[in-house]
Amino acid sequence: MTRTEKGALGALTGLSLGDALGMPTQSMSPAAIHEAYGRVDTLRDAIADQPIASGMPAGAVTDDTEQALIVAELIIDGKGHIDPKELAKRLLAWEDDMKSRGSLDLLGPSTKLALEQVRQGADIMTTGRTGTTNGAAMRVTPVGIANRPKDTRRLANRIYESCQVTHDTVAGFQSAALIATTVSLGLEGMTVRQALQESLRLVPAMETSGAWTPKASVPARARQAIRLSEEFSDEGDFERHLIEDCGTSVESNESVAAAFALAWRFAYDPQSALFAAVNLGGDTDTIAAMTGAMTGASAGPEAFDPTLCSRVASVSHLDLQKTARGLIALRQ
């Protein structure tokens, strides 16, 4: 397996494992997580009163992985391009299927608002103009795998294709671009920290037609979060201040920033980064999924516990190698 192939598989593996580890803790407070599970350091069944994933089995993934795989399919079918109309159609079909199964794991707030407008016949050029949450960032990893970073304009265009219909804002685009660019740089052979730093340099310079919003800048918050990750030697102090000073909500300038802090702090131990992420509270599955994608792209799949990865693949019926190969063929 080449370095690029290892990076592609590592990114998808880290994404799915982080997602599955965070499934039982998502949308819970740190105190509620501790009361229900203690310290989460393995795959766990969701408790019966889990607010989103009630009773889901250990190893099950959520919308983070499933939507990323939808994006991957569209990229492969479109020979590198994503048709925003087809993305909207696939996401609506995915949610309808989830509803039919009685699942509460549905579309996030920005995506749901945009796609309800699509369902009612709105022009997709207008539907994403308020989306600032992390829905685009959580599903963008395949774009980073399929596109090299040296052509930043093409990379930016492909990222925009993936977020326009639901997150057509500066914050929505930059959050997705930070994840995709970091993943793409990791596949080029950069270390985790090198990729994070270079992504923070490249993304603010990328042009986007996304709408301005009064939200704090995602790259600026990510830089602050990295500094926070270096300030505290004690893990408990670091996690507490990450929760209080950065935030772990679905807003991109909190969750993407938190993922950058975790990836930076645990650059040499990606598995521990995921364990830290899923105990923070808030949008734990998405923070862990983004952290896993970025660290896995540089470190490869061997950075993660193979037993846990095998269980996720089995329970969630994933063939990540096939997906990685399809995306890498387009990258070449």
From TrEMBL:
Molecular functions per Gene Ontology: hydrolase activity; metal ion binding
Keyword Magnesium: yes
Pfam family, one: ADP_ribosyl_GH
Record keywords, A-Z: Hydrolase, Magnesium, Metal-binding
Cofactor details (free text): Binds 2 magnesium ions per subunit.
Source superkingdom: Bacteria
Residues the record lists as binding Mg(2+): 62-64, 283, 285-286
SUPFAM superfamilies on file: ADP-ribosylglycohydrolase
Cofactor(s) for this UniProt protein: Mg(2+)
Protein name, UniProt field: ADP-ribosylglycohydrolase family protein
Organism encoding this protein: Bifidobacterium mellis
